[in-house]
Amino acid sequence: MKKKIIWSLVAVLVIIVGIFSVHALTSKDSSSQNGRTIQQIKKSGEIKIAVFGDLKPYGWVDQNGNRQGYDIALAKKIGQDLGVKVKYVQVNANARVDALNSGKADIALANFTVTPERKQVIDFAKPYMKVSIGVASKKASLITNVNQLNGKNLIVNKGTTAETYFTQTYKNAKLLKFDSKTQQFAALSDGRADAITDDNSYLFAWVKDHPDYQVGIKQLGDQAYIAPGVQKGNKSVLNWTNDEIKKLNNNGFFTGDYQQNLAPFFGDDVKASDITINK
Fold first, then answer.
1. Alpha-carbon gap, residue 201 to 218, rounded angstroms
2. pLDDT, tens digit, for every residue of 198-224?
3. Is the peptide bond before 57 cis (omega within 30 degrees of 0)?
4. Cα–chain-centroid distance for residue 66?
5. What are the backbone dihedrals phi and psi of residue 133, each rounded to the nearest 5 degrees, phi first?
6. Which of 104, 121, 178, 211 is surrounded by the most beta carbons within 10 Å?
7. Residue 276: what are its φ and ψ, rounded to 5°?
8. What digits encode the pLDDT tens for the residues 227-267?
C-alpha cells in the first residue's frame, strides 16, 4: 500500500515538473521571438534604437561626439514620448536585421527601406520617408542611363536595396561591395569605381559637398519607403510605433525634421515633398 502511494506521488511530481518545464520553455521562446513590450521598455527606463553613425544627413556622429541627423531627431522624439532614455545601437546596413532579431535593438531607424524580403524576417511600422535608388558619378564622365554601367565598376553598400537591384535586376555592372557608408564614399573619392549606387537621398546630400559629382540617374526601379523596423511578432512595439508615426505626421513633425536636418544638405533638386510622407 505504501509503495503504491509513493509511486503515485512520484508520478504526480513528474507530471507537475513536466508541466512547469514546458511552460518555462514556451515562455522563454515567446519572449525571445517577440522582444520587449512597451511596458517593459518603460519599466527599464531605456529604449534601444539602431541607427547609423556615418551617414549624413540621417545619422552620424559630429566632431564633438554628438549624434545628429533626421533619424536621430526621430529617435529622440520616440524616447521623449515614451518617457525613457534612448540607448543608440550603431549598426551598418547589413546588421540592422540581426540587431532586431538578437534583441540588441527594440527599433531600427537606420534609414530602413521596406522590402518584401525584409518583411519576411522583421516587421515594419508605418513609413515616414520615401526614396528611390540612384546612381552618382563624376560630371566629366556622367552616367545617366543604367546601360552605361555595362562592365563598369559600381560601388554598393552591403545589405541595401541598391545591392539587391544590381544583383537581381541589372547584373551587367561589376560590383564593389562595402560594409559602411564611410568606406563606400571613400572608395568613390579615391577613384576605385566609375559610379556609386545607393538611396538617391544619400547621394543628393553627398554630391552637394562634392561638386565634381552628380546624381545622373535619380530613380531606378519602384519608389521605396523608409520605415521603423521592429522584431518580428513584437505587436506591442509595432502598434505603439504605428500610432507614434501617425501622430507625428499629423502634427507636422517630419516636415520640421526635414527643414532642420535634411534641407541644409540637399541642393535645389530636392523638396520636402520629395522625401516626407504627410498622411
1. 9
2. 998 889 889 988 999 999 999 898 889
3. yes
4. 20
5. -75, 135
6. 178
7. -80, 160
8. 999 999 999 999 999 999 999 999 999 999 999 999 998 87
